[in-house]
């Protein structure tokens, strides 16, 4: 190993996107292997706006496996981390880095320890599927470091054991998680339906909804739903299989009305399953419900869906507009109902692709104040505004899958010590 030198550090840095399900995963048939009760489909979000960056390092001088998330050390003792680490280690191969004079034999990996540093470019606490991007990035970067020969599908099956939705973050664009049949989970993998260029008209605006409520975790919530909700079983057996076929067809043919109807219906059914759980789980709040009503009213008055909405295990709304023009109109509506609090600049209230503000003619606060009520609202009822109910918006689009970052300056670990920078 490394010519007898003990002070070398070998590192890999990768960036992995998050994803939003348009046909939801909710319920496991195997809790340890994380095998779902139905297929699901997601859209990968542009990593420029929402992603996890992870650096993994190996050195003979490391005494333990250690991990830091957003600069703070976290425990790796949990079963999910251990399962991912074990599955990757047992597939590791020899590594030869001639430039650095580092040679690692296949069997060395059993004794070597790794350091992992992960950073989300969005607030972890905002409830934006950080575990999906996080586990996908951990598996992708460790697989590169340990020179795994497995394809992306096999890596997705490892990421799945960290967090189910993570398997879909191994690809860009539109992704299906095939539930599989095998008891060992080998065929429960993600497959790419289409890449991010396939339907690049779509614009996604996320409303990060203010909430004090402590939410039930997805893991606990879905366990309780499997145990108590009859609707969950009906959904998994009768509803989702048909919707998966219809959604695949809608994506293939760029059929936005079908895409939107299916996305909204599936989000609503997932939240209906949560209500059907004993005790019931409430992920959406009044703000979420208001956003649904505004979109439904607009879609109805337009005669055909303009915008799709979907909500995961929390109150944040993910709104998918059919194109940029519609997204500008949507932002006008959203800022009319949810204007920024008095001291907040527009540019710190609308994050991600801020160029949407210019398209919407909203460059200054006074432009927001001048917005008139959306035409679909009834003239005789004065529209109420809800400043403060949305923390901020993020404008994004469908994006690419994981990439390696070759530039060592982007690494989160120090190249000599292997400790966080
Ligand atoms: C509502 O993947 O977070 O976002 O597998 O227990 O880690 P675990 O759950 P997780 O659940 C995600 C549920 C969802 C729907 C979805 O992403 O499909």
TrEMBL record:
Keywords: ATP-binding, Lipid biosynthesis, Lipid metabolism, Lyase, Nucleotide-binding, Steroid biosynthesis, Steroid metabolism, Sterol biosynthesis, Sterol metabolism. It catalyses: (R)-5-diphosphomevalonate + ATP = isopentenyl diphosphate + ADP + phosphate + CO2. Its EC number is 4.1.1.33. One of its GO terms (molecular function) is diphosphomevalonate decarboxylase activity. It comes from Nelumbo nucifera (Sacred lotus). Performs the first committed step in the biosynthesis of isoprene-containing compounds such as sterols and terpenoids. It comes from the Eukaryota. Signal peptide: none annotated. The gene is LOC104588425. NCBIfam families: mevDPdecarb. One of its GO terms (cellular component) is cytosol. Residues 17-190 form the Diphosphomevalonate decarboxylase-like N-terminal domain. The lineage of its organism: Eukaryota, Viridiplantae, Streptophyta, Embryophyta, Tracheophyta. This is Diphosphomevalonate decarboxylase. Belongs to the diphosphomevalonate decarboxylase family.
């Amino acid at each position: 190993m490394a010519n007898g030198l003990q002070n070398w550090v070998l590192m890999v840095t990768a960036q992995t996107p998050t994803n939003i399900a348009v046909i939801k995963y909710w319920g496991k048939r195997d809790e340890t292997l994380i095998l779902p009760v139905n297929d699901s489909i997601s859209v990968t979000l542009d990593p420029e706006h929402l992603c996890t960056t992870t650096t993994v390092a190996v050195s003979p001088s490391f005494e333990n496996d250690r991990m830091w998330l957003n600069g703070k050390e976290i425990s790796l003792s949990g079963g999910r981390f251990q399962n991912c680490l074990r599955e990757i280690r047992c597939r590791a191969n020899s590594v030869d880095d001639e430039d650095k004079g580092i040679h690692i034999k296949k069997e060395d990996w059993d004794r070597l320890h790794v350091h992992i540093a992960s950073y989300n470019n969005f607030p972890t606490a905002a409830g934006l599927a950080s575990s999906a991007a996080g586990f996908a990035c951990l598996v992708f970067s460790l697989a590169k470091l340990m020179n795994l020969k497995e394809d992306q599908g096999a890596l997705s099956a490892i990421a799945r054991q960290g967090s189910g939705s993570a398997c879909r973050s191994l690809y860009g664009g539109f992704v299906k998680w095939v539930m599989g049949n095998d008891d060992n989970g080998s065929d429960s993998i993600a497959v790419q339906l289409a890449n991010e260029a396939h339907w690049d008209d779509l614009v996604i605006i996320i409303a990060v909804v203010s909430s004090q409520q402590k939410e039930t975790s997805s893991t606990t919530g879905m366990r309780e739903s499997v145990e108590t909700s009859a609707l969950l079983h009906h959904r998994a057996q009768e509803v989702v299989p048909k919707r998966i076929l219809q959604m695949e067809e809608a994506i293939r043919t760029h059929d936005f009305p079908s895409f939107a109807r299916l996305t909204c219906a599936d989000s609503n059914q997932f939240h209906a399953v949560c209500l059907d759980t004993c005790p019931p789980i409430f992920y959406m709040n009044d703000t979420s419900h208001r956003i649904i009503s505004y979109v439904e009213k607009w879609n109805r008055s337009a005669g055909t869906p303009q915008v799709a909405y979907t909500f995961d295990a929390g109150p944040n709304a993910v709104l998918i507009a059919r194109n940029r023009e519609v997204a500008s109109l949507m932002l006008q509506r959203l800022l009319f109902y949810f204007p920024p609090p008095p001291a907040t600049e527009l540019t710190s209230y609308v994050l991600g692709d801020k160029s949407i503000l210019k398209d919407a003619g909203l460059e200054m606060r006074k432009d927001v104040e001048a917005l008139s009520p959306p035409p679909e609202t009834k003239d005789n009822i004065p529209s109420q505004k809800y400043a403060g109910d949305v923390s901020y918006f993020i404008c994004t689009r469908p994006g690419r899958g994981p990439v390696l970052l070759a530039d060592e300056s982007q690494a989160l670990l120090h190249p000599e010590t292997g400790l966080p920078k």
